[in-house]
Design a protein that fits this description.
single chain, about 200 residues, alpha/beta, five-stranded mixed beta sheet, two-stranded antiparallel ribbon
């Protein structure tokens, strides 16, 4: 007589799906993912077909040159500065509180809700990078420049309307932006090398 083969009991796999699902959730929660960074910029409208090209004459005193080299060194006009000093330097340039001849020229302008104001709206901040500049440094520079405008707008809106810029209505925000228009120009990248 032949021996009876014993049946091997099956493995209960009913909880395997639950365990794998829990592991998947665990790894999704604990893993960090790189996030894309970007800049909020509004492009100028395209020129109309019949519009003639006008030459733009910008005085040297109205331009703040911000240069970044491949090593991450920051030069503003002819001075090497730390990135932590950029915001204050940009605010001083944009505001020109004492109407210095080395900073943007002031002129009188009528702005709705603000009246006659002495503004420096002809200023331009020109950012030029090296082709080897890291994105991290580039975004830090852009963030500092935008923060300079945001702080100036907040200071003015608190002085004129008694509340921060974000709490203003649309007409009030338009008036503040007319006083401090954000003018950041991107120049074509150059090859500066390691140092300027």
């Amino acid at each position: 007589m032949g021996k009876k083969k014993k049946k091997v009991p099956g493995i209960n796999a009913s909880s395997t799906a639950d365990i794998s699902f829990i592991l998947l959730i665990f790894f999704l929660i604990t893993t960090s993912m790189d996030t894309d960074m970007g800049l909020a910029r509004r492009l100028p409208p395209p020129p109309e077909k019949d519009q003639e090209e006008a030459e733009i004459d910008v005085k040297e005193r109205n331009v703040l040159n911000v240069r970044l080299n491949a090593a991450g060194n920051l030069m503003v006009n002819h001075d090497f500065i730390d990135i932590k000093q950029l915001r204050a330097r940009a605010k001083e340039f944009i505001k020109n509180e004492n109407n210095l001849s080395s900073l943007p020229e002031k002129h009188m302008k009528h702005i709705d809700l603000l009246g006659q104001c002495a503004v420096t709206d002809k200023h331009v901040i020109s950012v030029q990078t090296d082709r080897g500049t890291s994105y991290t440094i580039y975004f830090q520079v852009q963030n500092e420049l935008v923060a300079a405008y945001n702080e100036l707008r907040n200071e003015l809106s608190k002085a004129k309307f008694g509340k921060p810029y974000a709490a203003l209505n649309e007409d009030q925000q338009v008036a503040i932006r007319a006083y401090y228009p954000q003018k950041i120009s991107e120049a074509e990248p150059k090859n500066y090398g390691g140092t300027n």
